[in-house]
Amino acid sequence: MYRFLIEDIITKVGAELPEFKTVALFNDDFNKAEQGLKDLVKFPALYISFPEGVDYSDNGAGVQKTNELKIRFYIAKSITKGRASNSTTVLDLLDLKQKVYKAFQGYKSNGFNTFKRRFEEMDEDRTNYYVFMQDYTTDLIDDTKYVDGGGVTHQITALDITDEVVINSATKQGIRTAKNVNDNG
């Protein structure tokens, strides 16, 4: 279900944020890279994560909607050798996180509602990277099991009546009723 959302994010980053050299789904990549267990990450990098579970509500006809799906972006740059250049790297990272905000705040597309930034913080547990985390929420529509309740046609047989209406004058004063000319009474 998340596939279209992930593909949409990756496409948007490629089109609007070309400075990112790695854009992928997060899988504890920073810890793995620090332990030498992961392929080389090209920086700057943007990883996409869904850090919390999500509740669904039924909207009828097989359509479900999430309630506040949290999307986390890990925005990362590698640490450089010199202390002075590290300050520049941090400032560059802050510029990148603002560019991500500009691209995604208020963004919506087919299948999900408006992205809203909810939280930001630095990940200070890294030894080889500067990482900034940015959380957004959205509502996701899953119509994979949509059941079309329409499309059924009913044939109506012609009835032998006319559309002429005669007012029944025998009715009590002030009350009017209609009598179909096809009635026998």
What does it look like?
This protein is 23% helix and 29% strand. With 185 residues, the chain is α+β, with helices and mostly antiparallel strands. The model has no long low-confidence stretch (mean pLDDT 80). It is built from 3 helices and 10 strands, in the order αβαββββαβββββ.
Largest sheet: 5 strands, mixed
Helix content: 10-25%
Amino-to-carboxy terminus distance: 64 Å
What amount of the residues lies in strands?
A: 25-35%
Rg is 31 Å
The helix-strand sequence is HEHEEEEHEEEEE
Describe the structure concisely.
By secondary structure, the protein is of the alpha+beta class. It contains three helices and ten strands; from the N terminus they run αβαββββαβββββ.
Provide the fold topology:
Elements lengths: L2 H14 L5 E4 L3 H6 L10 E5 L5 E4 L5 E4 L1 E10 L4 H22 L11 E8 L5 E10 L2 E2 L22 E3 L10 E3 L5
Parallel strand pairs: 1-2
Antiparallel strand pairs: 2-5, 3-4, 4-8, 5-7, 6-7, 9-10
Defining traits:
185 residues; alpha+beta; 3-stranded antiparallel sheet; 3 helices
